[in-house]
Amino acid sequence: MIIEAIHKINPNAKVVIRGNDINTCEIEWLEGTTPIPVADIEAKMVEVQADYDAKQYQRDRVYPSIGDQLDMLWHSIDQNPALKSQYFDFYEAIKAVKVKHPKS
Question: How open is the CA angle 41-42-47, to the nearest 5 degrees?
């Protein structure tokens, strides 16, 4: 997270971090990168962690694959004749492939 915080402050920073604890790690600034004070890095680490925590739902929200979603949609339409007229083009395109290449 240290490197993420540094790059949030300066996206062009060239730096090597040795260690994972901001209080004990060694930070080597490369290629003339202006050093960032540890206090600024620590403050940015708090922001980075808060942003990460706030987006937990994005990491938890795992949808079925697009293929599985389309298959579910096709079967829903196939089982409900009233939907066939609404989704005729989609339904007929998928049905044509299924008829031409049946599972067995």
Answer: 95
Residue for token pair 């050093």: 35
DSSP 35-79: P--HHHHHHHHHHHHHHHHHTHHHHH--PPPHHHHHHHHHHHHHH
Residues 36, 76, single domain; the answer is no
Q: What is the pLDDT along the chain (104 residues), one digit of tens a residue?
A: 999 999 999 999 999 999 999 999 999 999 999 999 999 999 999 999 999 999 998 899 888 899 999 888 888 888 887 877 777 788 788 888 889 998 87
The answer to whether position 104 is within a domain reads no
pTM for the model stands at 0.61
Q: Are 15 and 27 spatial neighbours (Cβ–Cβ below 8 Å)?
A: yes
Structural domain containing residue 95: 66-99
